[in-house]
Amino acid sequence: MEPILLYDTTLRDGTQGENISFSAEKKIEIAKRLDELGIQYIEGGWPGSNPTDMKFFQLAKKLPLQSSRLTAFGSTRRKGLTPSKDQNIAALIQSQTPAVAIVGKSWTLHVEEVMHNSLKENLAMIRESVEYLKNRKKEVIFDAEHFFDGYKKNPEYALETITAAAEAEADFIVLCDTNGGTLPFEIETIMKEAIAALNKKSGQVHIGIHAHNDCSMAVANSITAVRSGAVMVHGTINGYGERCGNADLTSIIPILCLKMNRKCIPKKNLKDLRKISRFVSETANLVPLNNRPFVGESAFAHKGGIHVSAIMKTPKAYEHIDPEQVGNKRRVLVSDLSGKSNVEYKAKELAITLNENGHDSKNIVAEIKRLEREGYQFEAAEGSLQILMEKFAKRFKPLFELESFMVTIIKQKNRQCASQASIKITVNGRTEITVAEGNGPVSALDNALRKALNKFYPDSLKTTHLIDFKVRVLEGSDGTSAKVRVLIDTRDEDRIWSTIGVSEDIIEASWQALEDSLQYKLSKK
């Protein structure tokens, strides 16, 4: 079977998602990782549309790619211009990429009602643009925008648009579900009709799929397209993109490799899939989705005691693949629903030696159930869970101890609140007192603690930063006297961990979570 070519558009379509923006330098870093993964095509952006993309293509000229072909994105010539007079076409040439992708309209609604163009002129725009770029020795990928919606409205014209591109010798014709509203059975039917029409008029043509996720079908539609004859699949890392996103390559790649036995990237590179997923989310400054298939923190997480007991005997009882194949790992969650199996598995995972007679595991289960009745939630705070289990196993050695802290909040008329924290800690008998300011009381406390710890553990916390802070009121009927649960997510260059605190005082609960977070980090160092 023909290998499947992967076309990554994280650097263009991905940046159209909310709250996602990459500098030209960050785009270069992502492109390097995609190349190392084995992606065949990397779409760098639209060079004629903004300064960032123009700078990226300038920097990319010196990028020594081994696996990937860099691609510049643009559109067909504009109405009434020749390709040689069109600035967007000129920008594609000036980008000096070996491949270019141009988008053209396939839906009569867009041609006539949005662009106010004629159907005949639109076909000429497609044909002439492809021919012009081919004459300049470019590999041309034609994106038939809104193809599936266009086919449903006017199949004859939709087929004419891709035939025009094929007759102009486009290397790939990519059928786009731009609105993300097409379902897999429709993809199958329309793909086969399109391939048959192209083969009849233009000879064999390479077909691709570009799916959006507005019906949560982008991955399913991409896989269906491959089964229907597509040899190129467009997508983004983590499914980032406009509205509900694009097809997620972190799912498509393992499905193709492991479920369908189709070549796309070298199988040895699959183990880097989770790593690149995390790298892109970190670069985008977005918290990774725990329940993302294959690469998410919860993708191979087990909570129910029966499930845990089964995977201790044979993991495939509740796992569809070995998590290590995609660079992930099995996780067992511990909560008030857990039994001894969960605790014993978790202890083994964390290299904590428990009493062999089961006494420790029983006590840990009982303590977890007691604490969760008070509001703790250890399945969401594995950093705190590890510290708790180490205490029961008499393995926990605190790397710092709190003597006292004081937080001051000052509110002046017409000014924002100002926060300052002073803290006194002891490390190996030595005492340190520091003061720091912050954007709020918890931020000030965090800054003061880090400042103090830096005297004893230089640079150990340099790459560590808080990425999420969640507060939950546990019993609202108690009003301001209610207990609160604070969950803190912290990350460094390698991992993310969560810690928890519970108290009637939000600062006290925050301190508990913050202390556990930094104890956990320092213990790893």
Describe this structure in words.
It contains 17 helices and 16 strands. It is α/β, with parallel strands linked by helices and 525 residues long. The protein has three domains: 5-265, Aldolase class I (TIM Barrel, Alpha-Beta Barrel); 301-392, no CATH class; 401-524, Double Stranded RNA Binding Domain (2-Layer Sandwich). The strands form four sheets. The chain has an eight-stranded parallel beta barrel, surrounded by nine helices. A three-stranded antiparallel sheet has the order 11-12-13, covered by helices on one side. α1 packs across α2 (51-60), α1 (24-37) packs antiparallel against α11 and α12 (305-313) crosses α13.
Radius of gyration: 28 Å
The average pLDDT score comes to 92
Q: At the fourth CATH level, what is the homologous superfamily of the largest domain?
A: Aldolase class I
CATH topology of the largest domain: TIM Barrel
Q: Give the N-terminus to C-terminus distance in angstroms.
A: 48 Å
Which sheet architecture does the biggest sheet show? 8 strands, parallel, barrel
Kindly name the structural category.
Answer: alpha/beta
- The total beta strand count reads 16
The domain tally reads 3
Features:
single chain; 525 residues; alpha/beta; TIM Barrel; Double Stranded RNA Binding Domain; 17 helices; elongated
Which helices and strands, and how do they pair?
Elements lengths: L4 E4 L15 H14 L3 E5 L5 H10 L8 E7 L11 H8 L4 E7 L2 H7 L4 H17 L3 E7 L1 H7 L1 H13 L4 E6 L6 H19 L3 E6 L6 H10 L4 E4 L13 H11 L13 H11 L17 E2 L2 H9 L17 E2 L7 H10 L9 H15 L8 H11 L8 E10 L7 E10 L2 E9 L2 H13 L11 E9 L10 E8 L4 E8 L2 H19 L1
Parallel strand pairs: 1-2, 1-8, 2-3, 3-4, 4-5, 5-6, 6-7, 7-8, 9-10
Antiparallel strand pairs: 11-12, 12-13, 14-15, 15-16
